[in-house]
Design a protein that fits this description.
Helix content is 60%, strand content 7%. The protein has 54 helices and 25 strands. Strands 5-6-20-7-16-10-11 form a seven-stranded mixed β-sheet, sandwiched between helices. A four-stranded antiparallel β-sheet has the order 1-2-3-4. The longest helix is centred in the middle third of the chain and has 159 residues.
Amino acid sequence: MATLQLYTKGASVWIPDPDAVWVSAQLLQDYTRDDKHVLLQLPGGEEECYPVAAPSDLPPLANPDISEGESDLTALSFLHEPAILHNLRVRFLDYNSIYTYCGIVLVAINPYDQLPIYGEEVIDAYSGQDMADMEPHIFSVAEDAYRTMMREEKNQSIIISGESGSGKTVSAKFTMRYFAVVGGAAQQTSVEDKVLASNPIMEAFGNAKTTRNDNSSRFGKYIQIGFSRKGAIIGANMSTYLLEKSRVVFQAPAERNYHIFYQLCASRQLPEMRSLKLATPEHFRYTNQGGDANIPCTDDVMEMERTCNAFSILGRSLLIHIKMKELHLFLLMCFFSTKLAGVLPEQQMELFRILAAVLHLGNVNIQASGRSSERSYIDADDVSLAIFSKLLGVEAAVTAHWLCHRRLILGGETLVKPISGQQAIEARDALAKHIYEQMFKWTVHRLNAALRSQLGRTRSFIGVLDIYGFETFERNSFEQFCINYANEKLQQQFNRHVFHLEQEEYEREELTWSRIEFSDNQQCILLIEGQLGLLDLLDEECRMPKGSDDSWVQKLYDKHLTGRGHPHFRKPRMSNSAFIILHSADMVQYEGGGFLDKNRDTIFEELVNVLKASQSELVAELFQQQGNKPSVANGSVRSGRRAHREHKLTVGFQFRQSLQLLMDTLNSTTPHYVRCIKPNDLKRPFMFDPKRTVQQLRACGVLETIRISAAGFPSRWTYEEFFFRYRVLLHGCQGSGEVQLACRQALPQLIPDPDQYVFGRTKVFFRAGQVALLERLRAERLRMAAVVLQSWVRRWLARIHYTRTLWATITIQRYCRGALARRLALILRYTKAALVIQKTYRMLVARNVFHLVRQAAITIQAFIRGTLARRKYRLLVEERAASLLQARVRGWLARRAFTRFRAAVVFAQCCVRRRAAKRELLKLKTEARSVERYRELNKGMEVKLMQLQMKADQVARERAALKESLRVEREAAANELSALRATIQKLEEHQKRFTARPVSILSEEEQQERRRAEEKAARELLQLTQEVEALQREKASLSTERDRLSACLLQQEQAQEALVQQAVSRATAAVRVELDEERRKHQGLLREFTRLEQRYDNLREMSQLTQGYGRTDSTQSLEPLSPSPQSLSPFTSAFPSPEEVRRISVTSPSTETRVWSLETSMDQLMNMMDVTKKAAVELKEEDLAHAYDVVRVANKCLESQLQSQRSEWEQEVEMLKCQLRQASSGLSAHQQALLEAREQECVRLRRELKGLRSTVPIRRLLTQVFPSTFLTESSSSSSQQKAASTTGLLECKKRDENKLIKNLITDVRTDIAVSLPPGLPASVVFLCVRQADCRGDQTSAYSLCRAAVTAMKTALKKHTNDVAMTALWLKNICLLHDLLNQHAPKQVERTFNNEYKHVLCIYEGMKGLLLSFQTNDPEEVQPLNFDLRDSIRTLSDLRIQAYQQLISIPKTQLQNFLASALLEGEDVPGLKPVGSRKRAGSEPRTARTDAPTMASVLKELWVLHDAMSHQALHPALMEQAFHQLTYFISASALNSLLLRKDMCCCSRGILIRLNVSQLEEWLRCRDLQTEGAVASMEPLIQAVQLLQVGKKTEKDAEALLQTCTALNSDQIVRILSNYTPHSDLDEKVSLNFIRMVQGLLKGSAHAQPLQLLLDIKREFPVTFPDATPPVVRADMLVIPDSLKISFIRRV
């Protein structure tokens, strides 16, 4: 009970609630012992009076904030049900953490969602880590079991239990997957694949849909995974318990039968399934009782395919479904194993026939006959019976007979008795259950045979128990009784183990402890399995001839209710056929009906004999094996010999025996517990139902663990942790030198009751609630310290305020006095200024008056004089006007008289002419009437027409002449105008000179002439001005149009260029990405090929050891088997290389025959596969045929893959073409024309190039024209080339080749090899190859090159952990590859270049130039005569392997201490040391003197850098290597940071940032920051920044998103959730802030669906730079004598 001092105002407590089980409330007043109630405030603001009759009735207290979201429930201050439930809810809903420790138990809540926390990167992060350092996880439990097994060499068990649908099977899968990865199964065997392949089979045959789970396991499973001495998985074994056979014949509403039946019905349309005569599940009685047969989001056809694939993996067809990259190895396994265990394809169909027969058996119509229905019969034409008999290969009539009859043996006589219809139906259902049970056992047996170890004796094992949890339904029967009985046994074992661990903890800490009382369920177990218990009475009732369920229940009442009665047994009030058992988890009522039949599991012997006689081999095998075991109970009447041991054959007895064996196995191992919790029944993701959760916590023993822990000392702190947390309570303790002494001296003063705590050797233990009391004292001490600090600060502030006020007063006074003095001085200054202003003003006024009067007088005089002048001028104008009027009038009178006279003369002339015209008209009329006149007129018409035409031409010419004259006149007018203007200007000047002279009056004619000239000039000037303006406007418009068109054209060209550049850049980027991906895949295949080669060597060594042979040298296993240049690996001769596969179709008959043929002899086959004859003597011909089928199917798979890749490539090409057409459709006409012109130019150039390539006839013609020249130059050129090529080389004789390879590569000592000049072995080998090539010795060149490559590969394998030697051979491999590639023959290119030069010579006509082209420069690269492309290709792959090996060595070294060095290195000076609290029950930390630091990491990088620099490797290659290593370092550190809650704090972030800065500085000093080496550490740097920035306001959240661009949403939320402050100056991140960040992340780029952890196994593809190798000559090499290769001769 918690101390009453904590029940004060403001304390948080828990009160019961009908909906939420427990709700939080707050005390509104202090509690005293006399109070009968406490006043509480509910979360909604309501007040409630909680009754308290005694202090023990007080509501449980809530834990302090420091325990919010604790990863271990036993570390809570208050251990009770509401605290456990609240902590689980917070971790599950707020932190999305589904795992929580509860002492030694891992509580796993099913999230009903896919979480990214089970990848290989998570496995790597948990591998080798302490359970207390990492966040709770199923991998942490598996790692603890694995490490304990390896350290103590003791068997382990992981017990996974829980309700149906809580995730037990998934947890077991992840556990086995973890063991497979850390146990090295991927390098030795395929046991993990087989175990995982068994899961679909066991789920199909043993899982079914229930009301609580769509995939409920209806059996228990215990898998023992065997390990070797080195910790590698070498085998497995599976045991099953209590299959629910009654489900085969009966299903409750909304439930289904086993999945396999529905999978078969869904696949009935397949060709191989049509012979089973199946229909829909609704058609069969055994599958239609539950109603709807469909499961949401489940495809039974796909599940059937998974089941068949799993069968195939475990059978002979394993080779067909395996990856092609492991085909070689598995073919070898076929040869080394005489018979593969598993399920063969034909046996699969037999299984399906048996399952279909069970379905048809349920549809057999059994009819009753007789008066009292005492007989039964089956129609002879029953279709279901006929199908059943045909599928099982039995006789229909015999089966029908024994279904309706029973054989009795009485007194030595055999009688056949008919049975009733109900009994016949029961016999039919019993037969169906028995058939399914036997088939299930046979399947498990075959799976165990496939999982059995083939590689030696199992040293130790880890068992994974996937057992059903406690079950209680509305109607509970025999199955629930057995399940709950098993859970009682497991709960007892669990309670005792928890108590044992508590006892060990107290003994290790040397505590004086008293026995802890815990609830032992031994009485409940004795009620079930004890003498005259429920199982004994059930077996006894089964032996009774007329035993029944009611009589058995009555015996239970008589035995366990009479007298004192059993405390765990009760009788229901309203039933006489049921009973109640008070289990440790809950009270369960069982219905007695059906207990006897299910316990007997009766099957008639006659029906079993019918099945034994089946024509089906599998059916006969099932029941023949069953007949050899005493597991079949006869009918109710049996012989005496079998009746004596019938009690051993009941289901209850067998289950009790198997359960006892399981308990013995678990007791002999170290158990680890996983309790799976189902958070809700709706299967919704991250939905928490407190009622269901509490029910399961009570049933699975978690609360019992808490109770046992609370009974002792649940809160445990190391002395260091206690000192740094409660240092403020320890008076007089300033340093941490004597931490334990300080704690021992201070605790009695803090907690007066010595029974509430105890001191251990390394820890201090507290009772429940004492940590909360210490937290309260600490808070009070901090509050008092804050009050003292506040008082001193306030005093200081008041003094500062007074000082400032005094200083301000004096200052104000000084300023006021100064202001008054300045004001007086200002007044005096103003007075003097006023006098001066008055004097000046008066002077200005008088001056202005004077000037005003003077100006007025002058103005009046000016106006008067102007008036007089204007008056005189008007008089002169009037006189001039009068003279003009007189002249005009006189002229007008003279003109009028002249006009009248001229008009009279013209009138008289007109009258005379009119009279003459009339006379002429009369004459013409008379002449017109005559014919001759008409003729004359007609004759003249043609002449007139000609004249008119000539006249028209003349008029046109005149018009043109007039236009020309007009132009001339205009020019003359312009000239005249300019002359007139000049004259006018002269006149004006003349007039100005003689202005003083009186103006002479011009004559009237001169004035008119002058006026006309001016008017004419003005008109012409106006016209010319208008024309000029029009031209200027036209010019401006044309210029504007030109600029617009130019700009438009330029814009279109720029847009087109941008489109083309974008298309080219996109295409280039796509090609580059595709190239990187292909390079990565290729390098991954090479890495996998290296691994398979190692596996091949291991298997061959094991096979030789088993056959009695010793170990062979690794170099011998790699020797070529034939002189072919392609046989560089043990599989090359039997299987094509990847390059050959790409060049040759895999479906080609010739290729298939070459790869594998049935006609190949055994000796040739063994030679190709490098198998000893003695190891292959027992091989059968059918194995060879099966291997041939495997390769043929593999070829088909490769063909389908190539076709799919080709189709994808064609689709990409079509898409690029469409994009090109769309880009070209937007071009303008001009640009289209330009593109067409460019295309035509390209076509023309191609034609010319084609013409140049076909210049062989020209060359022949030149040879005929200049025969002597060509012959002479060719001979001289060849002689010079031969002379140049045979100098500066090394010659090695044929007999010394092996010695050269051995001394130079294979057996060279490490110290000698490291001291050699970079690339010396490669240079020597190349010069020897060149010399052999120049001699024309093709065999020597091939053999020497092949031997060198093989030796380098052997040297790499020999020095797999030596950085210097690996770098040395990487340098030599790269150099030899570059040299061979540089000197490779290029016949086509050389021919084309020579022909092109000849054509140029013909065009120039220069004979000398032609001859010069035939000569060769002595410095030019001379090609090899023989083709070594296979060796070059092998070297290309080998250098990739060497690079990968070089990178893997520092990776392996860094992996052991990288996380500790980067995250737990030396503390930053000035910061408080950060320590993490370990979970309860964990061992205390021991101080390490050799703890790794950042210097250790830099040391490993130094080693790699020195090795690569010493070998003068290319800088680009070094940058790529360190890019890979920095990514590995960053990913490993970030993964550890995400999984370790104790590392997520500000001080730790500063330390990590310091270490990362050291790494960055180290890279920057060596110019290695390019190629993404520094950029790869950006996620870690941003994660560290996230630990250091503010995390409170919305601005902080927005700034956080802008900073953490390299982290995804899951990583950001995980770091914020794990943030744990280690000082009082810091505080945890609030849930509101986390939700705010999550809301912002949904709409940002961080919301992309990425995994939580980084993949530390990611390999960046390496690109070797295309550098020209240096010139290698023998005289340039310095060969030391230590190599002992003096037998080679310099040439």
